[in-house]
Amino acid sequence: MDSIEFQDLQRRLKTLEEENARLKALGAADQTLRRRAESALAESEERYRTLFNSIDEGFCIIEFFDGPHGPLSDYVHVEANPAYTQHAGIPNVVGQKVREMVPDEADGWVELYRDVLRTGRPIRFERELVATGRHLELAAFRVEPASRKQVAVLFQDITARKGAERELQQLNETLEARVVAALAERKLMADLVEGTDAFVQVVDPDFRWLAINGASAREFHRIYGILPKVGDNMLELLEDQPEHRDAVRAVWSRALAGEAFVEVAEFGAPGRARRFYEMRFNCLRDGSGRPLGAYHFSYDVTDRLKEQERLHEAEEALRQSQKMEAVGQLTGGLAHDFNNLLTGIIGSLELLQVRLGQGRIKDIDRYVTAAQGAAKRAAALTHRLLAFSRRQTLDPKPTDVNRLVMGMEELVRRTVGPEIALEVVTSGGMWATLIDASQLENALLNLCINARDAMPEGGRLTIETANRWLDEHAAAELDLSPGQYVSLCVTDTGAGMTPEVIARAFDPFFTTKPIGQGTGLGLSMVYGFVRQSGGQLRIYSEVGQGTTMCLYLPRHYGKEADKPSLPATRNAVRSEASHTILIVDDEPSIRMLLTDALEEIGFNVTEAHDGPTGLNILQSDPRIDLLVTDVGLPGGMNGRQLADAARTTRPALKVLFITGYAENAIIGNGQLAPGMQVLTKPFVVEALAARVLEMIKDGTDRT
User: Fold this and answer.
1) Lower Cβ count inside 10 Å, N or C end of the chain?
2) Does the pLDDT at position 647 exceed 80?
3) How far lies 510's CA from each of 303, 329, 332, 501, 526, in Å?
């Protein structure tokens, strides 16, 4: 190879090396560009995805395909951002076909978006998505190239805005009518306020009238002699009438301070007709609650008050008439029963006197027995009358009602007979009640007998005890004070009572039993006893369903119920003549009987016919071991006053009160001092002797 060829070869090799170097440089530059392009693409995709997921509007891309309904008759959601669910109310739409999602609306949506795909023209529109009840504002455009068969949709929920637009449209449509109605309403209210008989006034915090209707202005003029108008200061108008000015300031100041109240008062200057007014005051406030003044509505209630007074007088007259009717019924029944009893007593005593005059003493026991029997029935009748009138003498003690009921269970069972099933239901943890236990036993037995008579063919009798809390509402229905009570209820399954019978059940001598089978004093006696003891008796009954009689007795907060004590007997102790008893009674026959009875068992007896005479004896030297005194005495000093006066000098003096009825104000409402007891008239001599012997035995102190 010659040098020329060699040089040519070198030249060509160099050219190849330069071309190779250039190509390498181009390759390296191409890789750098590719990496830059890939990085830019990734960043672009990241920005797109961030924007896609972050925008507030709903966004999706749908892709059309040929379906059963023809070419491009359905589309599927290929992408959707999180806001799609928020605005459309449909979750997880990616992969869902429109005809599966909203089959009833699919044709309309397909037609809209298919036109965008075919023409490439974007659209903006509003449409309701019926499936979710939302109104949407939408924009749609084709995703290029068209061969992708995709459409992008951007939308937002405008349901609230559409609602506001509808309301605004309705408001605009009715605004004119509402303005007319409001003006008419204001005029109507103004006419009503001006035309009403009520006196209406509105004042500001400085006592200036903001409004006053004609009736109120005229009445103000009638009362005070001044005709006010809006803008006047009421205190300045009354400057010459300081008494009225101060009264007006006082009452309006309360309303201006925010108080709402009602007052009834009489107004009118001397020499003018005075009238009564019912005034309703209140504070006037703006929409934020800030006080603007005060207002009141007043009414002349003079005629109404006079009518109420007239009705009250008529009611009093009616009550008096009913009372006199009850008294007439009471005295009629009382006279009938006592005439029968007195006939037995008087007749027996007359025949006894005749037989003694004839010396025929063989048959006198029969007359004595008849007279005693009639007298005992008369005493029982008097006892029932006193119970009805709440004047019987009670001996209240803390009583366990459960113990009392269980103690009477066998007696009640024998009384009602085998045809009636007796059930006793006692409540645990029963409270004590302060009551006369013997009278409560009588009341319970009386209720059980009435229940028995209501079930002539047999039935069930239930006696139930319970503790009761009475709130204000329950207590008001029972005419009792709120608090704790013990209830004792007797329930039968008998014929029941009509409302008319219940209303009269406690009336004296009222009975539904056949003539001769009831006095009509049983329930009235129980009612009187319970009321006298601070309790209440209520009847709950339905015809054909039975009756419940409930006693409500106040709870006793003192010591636990006492066990019944055994009465002293006549033979328990024999007194010696060293004991002296003072008898004070204004009835000579009673003093004679008491003296003879007590002297017979060995006591020394001194007598006095009234309180002052008895006090003179007690304030002298003779020793007195026991004072037996009637409660009601003549001479200006009753039995309790006598006992109290005597105890100032003889503090340990024992006192036995004897009384025909409960003078509670004298005896002390059943709370006697230690060493004092009560014996109720009439009583048998043996009961008197037993009580006196018991009191003498309790202590041997002599005074």
Assistant:
1) N
2) yes
3) 41, 9, 12, 9, 14
Is pLDDT above 60 for 223? Answer: yes
CA distance 464 to 430: 12
| C-alpha span between 22 and 17 (Å, rounded) | 8
Neighbours of 397 (CB within 10 A): 21
Percentages (nearest 5) of helix, strand, coil residues in the chain: 50, 25, 30
CA dihedral 408→413→414→420, nearest 10 degrees, is 160
Q: How far apart are CA 8 and CA 11, in angstroms?
A: 5
Tokens of 578: 């060293």
pLDDT score at 600: 84
**Two tokens, residue 368:** 């004595």
What are the distances in angstroms from CA 460 to CA 274, 416, 419, 424, 491? Answer: 66, 10, 9, 11, 8
What is the total residue count of the chain? 703
Say what the pLDDT of residue 387 is.
Answer: 46
550-553: long-range contacts, CB 8 A cutoff, minimum separation 24: 550/487, 550/488, 550/489, 551/443, 551/487, 551/488, 551/489, 551/526, 552/468, 552/470, 552/478, 552/480, 552/485, 552/486, 552/487, 553/401, 553/433, 553/435, 553/485, 553/486, 553/487, 553/488
Alpha carbon distance 179, 210 (integer Å): 25
Gyration radius of the chain's alpha carbons = 53
Poorest-pLDDT segment among 388-397, 482-491, 686-695: 388-397
Closest CA to 640 of 661, 664, 660: 664
- On the question of pLDDT at 456 being above 50, the answer is yes
Strand partners, 283: 294
Q: How far apart are CA 637 and CA 243, in angstroms?
A: 52
Give which of 475, 481, 450 is closest to 463, Cα–Cα. Answer: 450
Nearest of 48, 108, 59 to residue 86 by alpha carbon: 59
Beta bridge pairs of residue 127 = 136
Collapsing DSSP to helix, strand or coil, 536 comes out as strand
Express each pLDDT in 509-532 by its tens digit.
Answer: 556 554 444 444 567 778 877 888
- Residue 538 to residues 66, 417, 547, 602, 655, Cα–Cα distance (Å): 88, 26, 11, 50, 38
Helix (H) or strand (E) holding 443: helix 437-453
Tokens of residue 639, six digits: 């039995």
Distance from CA of residue 341 to its chain's centroid? Answer: 50
Average pLDDT value for residue range 126-141: 88
8 Å CB contact between 403 and 439: no
CA 416 to chain centre: 39
Task: Say what the pLDDT of residue 262 is.
Answer: 87
Tokens standing for residue 94: 């990616």
- Percentage of residues in the chain with pLDDT exceeding 90? 15
Residues contacting 414, CB < 8 A, separation 6+: none
What percent of the chain lies above the pLDDT cut of 70? 75
Residue in the structure block whose two tokens are 């045809």: 419
Q: What is the pTM of this model?
A: 0.37
Which residue has better confidence, 565 or 653? 653
Q: Does 376 have pLDDT greater than 80?
A: no
Q: Decide: 152 and 59 in contact? Cβ < 8 Å.
A: yes
- Segment 138-165, tens digit of pLDDT: 999 998 998 999 999 989 888 888 888 8
Please name the residue that has the structure tokens 């006066």: 645
